[in-house]
């Protein structure tokens, strides 16, 4: 009797494990994934000054407004004012913005787990605000939903984003590049993704 109960419990547990695996596969960023559906209810915060934040009543931008009906190149990085992000990642997109526009890209977007005010200062410092749209993922919910989050507490950064890039058409991920470690800059740069679509 006990073994029959154990078998029944195990078989009852299988469907929920399978459902969880399917749910996780659906939510994880991958080619073919709908980025808006994978992060339901998530909104990002456009980079801005504090005064702009106050005057906009701290508005956020739903993902559907960023991605649906558009061709977008989006890249995520561990954080503003950090080494590779400032010296290589953002410049690789800024310096190629005309090539992206010539290929019909509606917008190039940088997303980081930072508040929109820090991102605004960083974008201005890099003189990249005119070329790239910067968005804050202040609580990391966007990156967590896509399973592109990373614990960088060892570098005193806390929970952040992996270094990645994607080409998104009408909300669907067509190309996705994720670095093996955030200190690398091999597959997520502007020059790489330009050659992928």
From TrEMBL:
Belongs to the peroxiredoxin family. Prx5 subfamily. Pfam families: Redoxin. Its main location: mitochondrion. It is found in: Mitochondrion matrix. GO terms for biological process: cell redox homeostasis; cellular response to oxidative stress; hydrogen peroxide catabolic process. It catalyses: [glutaredoxin]-dithiol + a hydroperoxide = [glutaredoxin]-disulfide + an alcohol + H2O. Its EC number is 1.11.1.25. The active site is at residue 85. Residues 33-197 form the Thioredoxin domain. PROSITE patterns: THIOREDOXIN_2. It is an enzyme of class 1 (oxidoreductase). The gene is LOC105060441. Keywords: Antioxidant, Mitochondrion, Oxidoreductase, Peroxidase, Redox-active center, Transit peptide. Thiol-specific peroxidase that catalyzes the reduction of hydrogen peroxide and organic hydroperoxides to water and alcohols, respectively. Plays a role in cell protection against oxidative stress by detoxifying peroxides. Reduces preferentially hydrogen peroxide rather than alkyl peroxides. May be involved in mitochondrial redox homeostasis. The keyword Oxidoreductase applies. This is Glutaredoxin-dependent peroxiredoxin. GO terms for cellular component: mitochondrial matrix.
């Amino acid at each position: 009797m006990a073994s029959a109960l154990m078998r029944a419990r195990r078989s009852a547990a299988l469907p929920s494990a399978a459902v969880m695996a399917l749910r996780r596969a659906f939510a994880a960023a991958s080619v073919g994934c709908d980025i808006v559906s994978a992060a339901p209810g998530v909104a990002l915060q456009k980079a801005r000054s504090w005064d702009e934040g106050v005057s906009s009543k701290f508005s956020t931008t739903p993902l559907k407004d960023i991605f649906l009906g558009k061709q977008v190149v989006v890249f995520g990085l561990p954080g503003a004012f950090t080494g590779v992000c400032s010296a290589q990642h953002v410049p690789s997109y800024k310096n190629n913005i005309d090539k992206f526009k010539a290929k019909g890209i509606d917008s190039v977007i940088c997303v980081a787990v930072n508040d929109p005010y820090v991102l605004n200062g960083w974008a201005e410092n890099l003189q990249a605000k005119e070329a790239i749209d910067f968005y804050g993922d202040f609580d990391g919910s966007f990156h967590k939903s896509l399973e592109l989050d990373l614990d960088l507490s060892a570098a005193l950064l806390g929970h952040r984003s992996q270094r990645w890039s994607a080409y998104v058409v009408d909300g669907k991920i067509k190309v996705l590049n994720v670095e093996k470690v955030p200190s690398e800059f091999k597959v997520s740069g502007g020059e790489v993704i330009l050659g992928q679509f």
